[in-house]
Amino acid sequence: MQTELFDVIIVGGGPAGSSAALYTSRAAQKTLVIDKDPHAGALGMAHSIANYPGVPDALTGMELLGLMKRQAVSFGAIYRNDKVTAIDPDGPEKTVFTVSGNAFRAKTLILATGAMGKSSEIPGEKKLVGKGVSYCATCDAAFYRGRAVAVYGKNREAVEEALVLSRFASTVMLLCPGGKLAVPEEEAELLHRAENVEIRYHSRVLSVNGEMGVESLSLEGAVDPLAVEGFFIYLSGSAPVLDFIGGRLEISSCGCLKVDREFMTSSPGVFAAGDMLCKEIKQAVIVAGEGCQAALYAGKYLRGTTIHRADYH
Ligand SMILES: Cc1cc2nc3c(=O)[nH]c(=O)nc-3n(C[C@H](O)[C@H](O)[C@H](O)COP(=O)(O)OP(=O)(O)OC[C@H]3O[C@@H](n4cnc5c(N)ncnc54)[C@H](O)[C@@H]3O)c2cc1C
């Protein structure tokens, strides 16, 4: 049993967790960040980030994460590579259990394990994530200016993202797995009006093909592969990573962790931030802002005050 008592343990070292670590460590709170693998997080998978404020030259998600970590470490945050398997969130001292058999204790926890796409398991998908396979047109559409792309899905997200892509790509092929889009008629109408969008119903993608990037899709019943450079998948959405919670914290009706307006979960002293919370827009800048807020509210909890202290001295 590890006996050192931290002020804050942050579970997850993505943009939400690392931003929280920057604020807690800079406030002189003894901070431990436990992250199982930065490559496994959403930002770690992103091949090019060009919309993070203050970072004008596009860089990979891993490079951006490296900068965030460096900044937090410069103020004293400790990063540890380990997978959290369970937490005990009750009482004044919380415990975090990891797969390596350790148990870490802290006065507060900030959970920031993100959300992961439910695997659709198309052959080739995993290999080409970040190399043409994407789950976020808002993030990546600008990289496909003048190129042919395909969107796979029939839900509202697929339709909205196809419209986003139509402003950049030369052609957008919307591959609908069924005979009808699952959106109101007026939304489908927007797609019909976009000149460079074509909808192919009853489409089933058998594989995503390419070595260094997406080159084509093999479709059921089609002789020739469909040549595209980008493939955006919206089959099953993403789900918050909550497997280590073990029913110890309240979950909202939409399946994400429940927090109050101060980012505190149902257990006092346990905060959460980032894509593991319900949100319509998943972007690094948004979750970094949430990490900051969770950290400042955790500081307020640690001081036992009701007064929030700003961090701009
Ligand atoms: C392919 C792709 C491209 C994107 N492009 C952009 C973009 O261009 N611009 C933009 O702003 N946003 C982009 N996004 C969205 C953005 O990356 C996410 O909104 C953001 O990363 C969410 O941050 P987070 O810290 O909540 O979670 P994550 O970034 O997912 O980080 C969670 C971390 O927690 C760790 N973790 C999970 N479970 C455990 C556990 N049990 N124990 C320990 N550690 C654990 C993970 O390994 C990971 O490091 C993109 C997303 C994807 C998937």
User: What is the percent of helical residues?
Assistant: 10-25%
What is the helix/strand order?
EHEHHEEEEEHEHEHEHEEEEEEEH
Q: Measure the end-to-end span.
A: 38 Å
Please outline the major beta sheet. 7 strands, mixed
Strand tally: 17
CATH topology value of the largest domain: FAD/NAD(P)-binding domain
Number of domains: 2
CATH superfamily of the largest domain: FAD/NAD(P)-binding domain
- Structural class determined from secondary elements: alpha/beta
Rg measurement, Å: 21 Å
The kinds of small molecule bound in this structure are: flavin-adenine dinucleotide
Oligomer: single chain
What CATH architecture label of the largest domain applies? 3-Layer(bba) Sandwich
Shape: elongated
Strand content: 15-25%
Instruction: Catalogue the unreliable spans.
Output: none
Written overview of the protein:
There is one protein chain. The protein has 313 residues and is an alpha/beta fold. It folds into two domains: 5-117 and 238-303, 3-Layer(bba) Sandwich (FAD/NAD(P)-binding domain); 125-233, FAD/NAD(P)-binding domain, CATH 3.50.50. It contains eight helices and 17 strands. It has helices at residues 15-26, 42-45, 61-74, 125-128, 137-140, 156-166, 185-193, 284-303, and strands at residues 5-11, 31-35, 78-81, 84-88, 94-98, 103-111, 115-117, 133-134, 148-152, 171-175, 197-200, 205-209, 216-219, 226-227, 230-233, 238-240, 270-272. The strands form four sheets. Strands 1, 2, 3, 4, 5, 6 and 17 form a seven-stranded mixed beta sheet that branches. A five-stranded parallel beta sheet has the order 8-15-9-10-11. Strands 12-13-14 form a three-stranded antiparallel beta sheet, with no helix packed on it. Strand 4 (84-88) and strand 5 form a beta hairpin. The two termini are 38 Å apart. The model has no long low-confidence stretch (mean pLDDT 92). It binds flavin-adenine dinucleotide (FAD).
